[in-house]
TrEMBL record:
Enzyme's top EC category: transferase
GO molecular function, one term: O-acyltransferase activity
Enzyme Commission number(s) from the entry: 2.3.1.-
Species per Swiss-Prot/TrEMBL record: Streptomyces hundungensis
Protein's recorded name: Acetyltransferase
Entry keywords, A to Z: Acyltransferase, Repeat, Transferase
Domain of life: Bacteria
Similarity comment: Belongs to the transferase hexapeptide repeat family.
Pfam family name, one: Hexapep
GO cellular component, one term: cytosol
Cross-referenced InterPro entries: Hexapep, Hexapep_transf_CS, Hexapeptide_acetyltransf, Trimer_LpxA-like_sf
Amino acid sequence: MPKNRNTFSSLTAWRREIASRAVHGGWDWIKRTGAVTAEHPGRLRFRRIGAGTRLAFPQGTVFGEPWIELGDHCIIGEQVTLTAGMMPGLDLGTEPILTLGNGVVLGRGSHVIADTTITIGSDTYCGPNVYITSTNHSYDDPRQPVGKQWPRMEPVEIGPGCWLGTGAVVLPGARLGRNVVVAAGAVVRGEVPDHAVVAGAPAKIVRTWDERDGWQPPLRTPAPVPIPDGVTPEQLLAIAELSPEEA
């Protein structure tokens, strides 16, 4: 009897392993096939989608594509929402409403809601669940439900080279300069100058940089040492395997 039970358990485990490989293999195929690129846009007809840009599958809510421009080599994670206009089917005129520069990264679950213009500069990276919107509710009439009052819209501009941490929120009218860091969970409104770090809700500047004084307040850790030119992957692997005493 124990022998039969062991044989049955082995057969069950083998079947589960085969089924697991089939499910994972099938899901990998679905994700590859469902990804959106310039060569394979599927049902989405963007105003422009650049070379090397990829929207991972499954996509989030996407509408207003004729007014959305995506630059080259952008990475759009799973379940990312990209919308132009308040609802599908509107005529938004001749100019783009939502523009992503080259090399923009939008992390999984992020939302970019462009009821009026939003521009995200090249090489800006966003972590997961970042929320960028050009629209906010209004509360002019305290007797009416807030959701039924006409919203306010202001353009949003995010400069090139920025980094937006997980869960950051960028509100209507925000203008971020070049190479700005937005801390995780920060809520940004108004103008942020170049080379600033902001944190908090509402976000405040906690660090700045300029040519004369460098970082103020000074960084607490030294800058990482870049890998020298000409170092091969094999050499890096060999260094990683050394003990601290050997290194």
